[in-house]
Amino acid sequence: LKWTSDKPVWVDQWPLPKDKLSTLESLVEEQLSKGNIVPSDSPWNSPVFVIWKPGKDRWRLLHDLRKISEVIADMGPLQPGLPSPTMLPQSWKLAVIDIKDCFFHIPLHPEDAPRFAFPVPSLNRQAPLRRFHWRVLPQGMKNSPAVCQWFVANVLSPVRKKAEKAVILHYMDDVLVCAETDSYLDWTLTLTIEAIESAGFQTQQDKIQRSCLVKYLRVQIRDRTIVPQQLTIQGNPRTLQELHQLRGSINWVRPLLGIRTETLAPLFNLLIGNEDLDSPRTLTEEAHRSIAKVQEAISKRQAHRVNTKLPFQFIVLGKCPHFTGLIYQWDAAQKDPLLIIEWIFLPHKPSKSITRPQELVAQLVMRARARLHLLAGCDFDCMNLPFTNSALEHLLQFSEHLQYALETYSGKISINHGKHKLFNTSFKLAPKEKQSKVPLKALTVFTDGSGGSHKSAQQWEADVRVVEGSPQIAELAVVIRAFERFPEPLNIVTDSAYVAGVVSRAENALLKEVSNPKLYELLSTLVYLLSYREQPFYVMHVIRSHTNLAG
Questions:
Q1: Would you put residue 296 in left (φ > 0), alpha (ψ -120 to 50) or beta?
Q2: DSSP structure class, residue 221
Q3: CATH code reported for the domain at 18-75+107-134
Q4: Which residues belong to any copy of the RNase H type-1 domain (predicted)?
Q5: Average pLDDT for 55-73
Q6: What DSSP element (H or E) covers 220?
Q7: Residue 525 and which of 16, 347, 375, 485 are 20 to 30 A apart at CA?
Q8: Angle at 343 between CA 339 and CA 345, to 5 degrees
């Protein structure tokens, strides 16, 4: 470990109830007998406590190492995410190994060990503190997960080289072995267990899973499909902490089950406000409906294991601008040919105030291609994007976002997808844009808004209205009034570059909530008016949109 300071850190032990103190003494004796701790006179000290582990029906010793972690250099995550079970080939044989007490079999460097010291107090201070320090990797130290990952990865590395035809997934102390045949699985499993045990770890033979259905990283992996394990959804979180726990449980299964961002929006919105974890939260009716939809998805949906003989495809689903992506395969030999590999989502909060449909699609394409590169090291054979051929041809010429998203892509782009009920109901072409790229032979409206006088005016008649806000808000208000007044084909000429830019991006766009309520109200109105407008329009920015000079 690398330390940012060698100055000893001392944090006093807090009092413990009599029953927990007795439990602490028993757990300390257990670790002492195993050689995991030794008596210590270290100048470093951190408090300890015990908690009950319901699932395992036993007490657990915890060491509060937050202050110690502050003076340890961060190693960073060695495995930033979980391995995807969908990349396990269909019908290949499976086995899962759970390494027992993994942390406690990884030794600390002798120079580091004394810094992880802790006391065992006595009731009423009847005796001096008994003090110990860890000889093995302690739980609670910020770099312990990374050290554990690194250590176990080194143990498994020779096995991966020998059994190169097998797939070995490793995350923390959970190891999954996957092979095409039973004989190859047996051989690889034996190699894996021997490597783990020769490194000093322990495995429990009675807990090794070896069947057509195994549980791994909170999912059930079957012969062809993957479903979440029995997941308890907290249906009525009352604090911010419980809400975060609920979100974590949902995020775990979202990529497998396709729980869309807009479905979860009412829950995400409840995270706004007081950041104290104990601060109260009350579910709205919309949030209750969101949880009901999540529970339904958990009970009815599934993902699939990969078919190594089929190419990967991608499709953008959803009604504009609420898009979602799906990485899938198409197995025509099956009754249900759709193999769901993973869902791709846009963030809950867009990065820009107004994001156009082609930008949203470009974001999904980039995310999906990056994800497939990570999962399978390849690109898509075909992508189904929600644009007509003529619209796509135009976008490929003029949309920098889509050009960048499709850079180096050599596969097919199509609006023709396989016949499936999911695609039939969810694949929607983006509406044809009403915005013209050239001026129309139609009515032209010159607008002017003055933030200083808080007035907005249009040149078609004497029409003045008080508008509170900046010059941009005043100019935006007058442009909105023009669209409200003239549903026919329309040219808008404005002297505000800001407003011209907003209008050019607003049609069918996704709107980010902004802090200024008046501006958000105006932007919402503009997006609605342009998205549901039937006649074309053209917007143009000039230095001055009108003048009082003759001619």
A1: alpha
A2: E
A3: 3.10.10.10
A4: 439-551
A5: 90
A6: strand 219-221
A7: 347
A8: 165
The highest-level CATH class for domain 228-301 is alpha beta
Report pLDDT for 465: 54
Q: By 3-state DSSP, what share of the chain in percent is helix, strand and coil, each rounded to 5?
A: 35, 20, 40
Record the pTM.
Answer: 0.85
Q: 3-class secondary structure for 473-527?
A: HHHHHHHHHHHHHCCCCEEEEECCHHHHHHHHHHCCCEECCCCCHHHHHHHHHHH
**pLDDT tens readout for residues 234-249:** 667 888 888 888 888 8
**Residues ≥6 apart with Cβ < 8 Å to 248:** none
The CATH fold of domain 306-426: Nucleotidyltransferase; domain 5 (3.30.420)
Does the pLDDT at position 48 exceed 80? yes
Q: Which two tokens stand for residue 462?
A: 């004497």
Task: Please tell me the distance from the alpha carbon of residue 209 to that of residue 206, in angstroms, as a whole number.
Answer: 8
Q: Are 414 and 408 in contact (CB under 8 A)?
A: no
Closest CA to 28 of 96, 151, 122, 158: 122
135-144, 224-233, 262-271, 467-476: which is most confident? 135-144
Which helix (H) or strand (E) element contains residue 537?
strand 537-541
CA angle at residue 541 from 536 to 546, to 5 degrees?
A: 100
- The answer to whether 16 and 49 are in contact (CB under 8 A) is yes
Main-chain phi, psi angles of 501, to 5 degrees:
-65, -40
pLDDT tens column, 405-454: 999 999 999 988 888 899 888 878 788 889 998 999 999 988 876 544 44
- Map residue 269 onto helix, strand or coil: helix
pLDDT in tens, 456-478: 444 445 454 555 567 788 889 98
The pairing of strands 48-53 and 58-63 is antiparallel
DSSP-assigned states of every residue in 124-185: GG-SPPEEEEESBPPTT-TTHHHHHHHHHHHHHHHHHHHTTTSEEEEETTEEEEEESSHHHH
Instruction: Convert the pLDDT of each residue in 75-108 to its tens digit.
Output: 887 787 889 999 999 999 999 999 988 999 999 9
| Model pLDDT, residue 453 | 44
Return the residue matching tokens 């549980």. 215
The 3 state secondary structure assigned to 96-116 is EEEEECCHHHCECCCCCHHHC
Over 60: is that where the pLDDT of 526 sits?
Answer: yes
- The reply to whether CATH 3.30.420.10 applies to domain 443-541 is yes
